[in-house]
Amino acid sequence: MKRILKLVSIGACILTLASLAVGQETRVFREGGNWVQEITGNLGAARTLRVKVDMGSVRVEGGAQSAVSYVIRSRSYSSSEQQARRDFELYKISAYSKGDAAWIVGDWQGGRHQDRKFSGEFVIMVPRSLELAKIETDGGSVRATGISGRTEIQSGGGSIHVDDVSGLVDAETGGGTIDIGTTGSDVNVRTGGGNIKIASAKGKLNAESGGGSIAVVSCLQGATLDTGGGNIQVDRCQGTVHATTGGGSVELGDIGGPVQMETGGGSIRLTSATGPVKAETGGGCIELNGVPSARAETGGGGIIARFLNSSSADRTDSALETSAGDITVYLASDLAISIRANIELANGHKIVSDFSDIHIASEGGDWGPRTVSAEGQLNGGGPVLKVRTNSGNIKFVRASR
Length: 401
What we know:
Blueprint: H1 2-22, E1 24-31, E2 34-44, E3 48-53, E4 57-63, E5 68-76, H2 81-90, E6 91-98, E7 101-108, E8 118-127, E9 132-137, E10 142-147, E11 150-155, E12 160-165, E13 169-173, E14 178-183, E15 187-191, E16 196-201, E17 205-209, E18 214-219, E19 223-227, E20 232-238, E21 241-245, E22 250-256, E23 259-263, E24 268-273, E25 277-281, E26 286-291, E27 294-298, E28 303-307, E29 318-322, E30 327-331, E31 337-343, E32 351-353, E33 358-363, E34 371-378, E35 384-389, E36 394-398
């Protein structure tokens, strides 16, 4: 009886392997001065896709098909067909189904593949309704498009491109660029040093680069952006924005919420924000437009700030401070605010104002350093605005509508 059961089990395995072999074809041919092994196959319907390869680029495309199919091209940069076939044997490629998951695995068995003149390309077509695509490659580029579910990507150093994905996107590369098109949920991306570009994120956005630039066209639920030294640019975003760079510039457009910006030495510019703003730079200039309240500090540049009277905003006290530079403040005529300003070491610098309610005074001799200060309450007073520079001019300008 045991012998019979064993034979039945072996027979079942043979039938399974036979079905896989029928769905897969392999051919080897010469292309230019190289040799190519092409494997095509079909894995049937699947809810998830798992790709794990030691080398080669990976492209996953969602579409109207109901099954997972693939075209895998391995290329040997050898003029010898015999050597090329040995290379193909060293790169073991497996494609199989396990439960509701389709698996495609590329396992290099010939030692350090970085030393080989060999490459791979995995093109995988999946149903758009795929719930999860998880892709891992040691160093090749990854491209995933047209998927309604979640996408998780990890590359040792290649570039990553994702577009037309409805679910959460989580992507990481050791140093390549990351390019995200249209997404329908949260986006979390990290690169060891490449640039990051986000076209549209409908969920929360988290982007981190070891030193590249970060550019965002649109995000709808806030963003946290961090780079070791590149520039940060955001055209528009709803919700809170945190932008930090070790030394690049920060340029934000229209922000529908609070803003925090910090750079080790670059310039900072903001078009507008509906919430409180905090901006710090080690030495660059700061320009804040259309803000309800702001705290800005720079080690050496000038500051320009335009305050609006927004009844919908939660207005708080503001402070503008620079060690050496001019500060220009634009105030709406109907803005209720209390002003306190001073120049520590005037040396010919002064405070000027378009508002008669701001009173200016000075202390010290005519020939030595003196302190210039100003105080006043506009439209009955309100949240306090403190303005301070060690050496520079201060101007209070009536903003035109």
